[in-house]
Design brief:
With 137 residues, the chain is mostly helical. The chain is built from 5 helices and no strands.
């Protein structure tokens, strides 16, 4: 009985979530995520002899993503954010970045990349667009 109830609650929650209108993101919002990623990248502790070099590479990657986004190169910006995310994961796997710091960079990079992907797939380059039920994009 408990398993059925949990399954029912899960299905209702899923249906309620899928029935809500979708929101398109703007490039301005994505730039805010990238700015947060940039700030956090500058603050995390990186261990090892080459910690300054590793931080410089991460920061340069984030700065390049921000620049591409500002010039409307959404796909290039997305690719660079993903590279930063991958590099942070490598540093965490090598023990040069703590789990907590690695997770923070991972989450910010994921938010920025999903935002950029949404803009690329029909969002707005600038300004705000709210899609309404029945809209076709």
């Amino acid at each position: 009985m408990t398993q059925r109830m949990l399954a029912l609650v899960g299905c209702v929650a899923w249906l309620a979530g899928s029935a809500t209108p979708c929101r398109s993101f703007t490039l301005d919002e994505c730039e805010q995520w990238i700015d947060q990623l940039r700030q956090q990248t500058g603050e995390v502790a990186i261990a090892g002899d080459r910690s300054d070099d590793e931080r410089r590479k991460l920061v340069e990657g984030v700065d390049a993503a921000r620049s591409d986004g500002a010039h409307g190169k959404v796909r290039d910006s997305f690719d660079k954010v993903k590279r930063v995310q991958d590099r942070a994961a490598q540093l965490e796997a090598k023990g040069k970045l703590s789990r907590r710091d690695g997770a923070q960079l991972e989450n910010l990079a994921e938010a920025a990349s999903r935002c950029l992907e949404a803009v690329e797939q029909g969002g707005s380059r600038r300004g705000f667009i709210e899609s309404k039920p029945g809209d076709r994009r």
